[in-house]
Fold each of these.
Amino acid sequence: MSLQFSHKPVMLAEVLDALRPRPGGRYAEGTLGGAGHSEAILAASSPNGWLFGCDRDGAAIEAAQERLAKYAGRFELRQGNFSELADWVPPESCDGVLLDLGVSSPQLDVAERGFSFQQEGPLDMRMDRRQQTTAAELVNRASAEELARIFWEFGGEPQARRLARVIVRERACRPFETTSALADVIERVSPRRGKRAHPATKVFQALRIAVNDEIGSLRIGLAGALKILKPGGRLAVITFHSLEDRVVKDFGRARAQDYTFTGGVDVPELRQPRAPELKLVKRKAIKPGAAELSENPRSRSAQLRVMEKT
Ligand SMILES: C[S@@+](CC[C@H](N)C(=O)[O-])C[C@H]1O[C@@H](n2cnc3c(N)ncnc32)[C@H](O)[C@@H]1O
């Protein structure tokens, strides 16, 4: 596997336990990354299990091709957004689907990708580098209101408005081009004062989510994943922050209900019974065990939710 792409799969045993790969089974991963999870799924479904994998990142697809080469003929890979899964994979064809959200280690570690405030690099943050909008474009073009909304909604940044105002003022003199230029301004406006996390953590997370439309893709991707699952097939989703976990939790709860509401303006709301589309395999999210937490710090905020199509 290329040295450039090294990512330790999070909660691997728990994912295999959730998806229960078996010979002849068909699986999909919308977030291939370095293909650690996908390789394990192909191994566990030997000799003839099949996997469709996609990732927005071209570097991930290259790394995955290399890593999965020994399973040639048993997988198909594609660069693209998992929000399109249902366009590429036939309906009700999969026994298991995995979404392991967020960024991979190489995306964070390669300075030129511009995801990390700890490394000097262009203010980029695009998972798919064919996409036009970069973080720099957003930071240099969006209105103060829009930036404040992004920082608050996607980062929970308490100083959202103040930071947005300062950014808009500073960019009039010199547009932001690098990760460190932005991190420096944030640190100046909101000094660390003994806090453990760097003051730019929330703004960088928020910009990354906005640049890649991560929440919009997740909503569409979850619905698509459910479409391509066979009845009895399982969906496993690993999230890394509360915003995306809430989307997954709400999706699961809504589709597991045996009723829906009808009605609206001037019409009383009525509960209508209906067949649930899925069941929650566990009510609560699964968290990494102590051994993984000590060995892989990036697993700290991971949560796994597992659902089964009815
Ligand atoms: C945490 S990593 C996945 C790691 C992978 N499971 C492994 O074992 O190596 C997340 C990956 O998902 C990709 N990604 C995030 N959102 C995506 C989306 N909407 N569509 C496709 N890929 C996405 C990122 O580019 C990144 O490579």
Amino acid sequence: MAVETAVGPDEELASAGPTMNLTLEVWRQRDATDTGRMVTYQARDISPDMSFLEMLDVVNEKLTTSGDDPIAFDHDCREGICGMCGLVINGIAHGPERATTVCQLHMRHFRDGDTIVIEPWRARAFPVIRDLIVDRGAFDRIIEAGGFISASTGSAPEANSVPVPKETVDAAMDAAACIGCGACVAACPNASAMLFTGAKITHLGLLPQGRPERYERVAAMVEAMDRLGFGGCTNIGECAAVCPKEISMDTISFMNRHLLASRLGRR
Ligand code: SF4
Ligand code: FES
């Protein structure tokens, strides 16, 4: 295991309050053909108030300054919304805090002197592009397979023109909270995408606008999920345990009920 340079923030930042020194074991992989390896970095004078991604930014700044390749990782909103960030931290997808994306995870949840192991999502359907970045395009293929809904588009209709019971709206909106991060796949020993697909099927299938095509949609999305190399569900529950949006496994039951109805031709 190679040991690389010690890295840390600027002196002004380091003097702002108590800081932490950490050892990082980071997966480095040049591209999809590289076998990859863990590399050790010393991250020094890290503020507990930094987010995990800000800590990696500090490490990368020093690596870049010293002429080394920065660690590649995905991110965009850094507000827990977009689903772009995703790292396995000490063996847990999105790290140790429940219902928290990596970008919303703060260094105060670690202790001075800790060793932190950082790896990419590992699943056949999510090939590594570089370092900690994986290709989650397979999720897009599942969404594409779901097709369109036949409801009219254009300006928003009057809110009360299609009455929907409150509990149905709440369940649909809970399912719609899925941000497509892929943690469920990374955590599942079968690399199953059933929580993600179940969330999409549920949020469209519960609402009147999405009901007309619900049986065709579930059949096509499940077929895509299987074809793209995701595994099946064996009710282990790791997916829901790591989901930053607390998507319920009830969405998988909803999907399975509709898939059965679709296959039996009961409309
Ligand atoms: S179900 Fe949860 S873990 Fe899976 S993609 Fe959606 S938000 Fe991420
Ligand atoms: S960067 Fe958008 S959810 Fe983390």
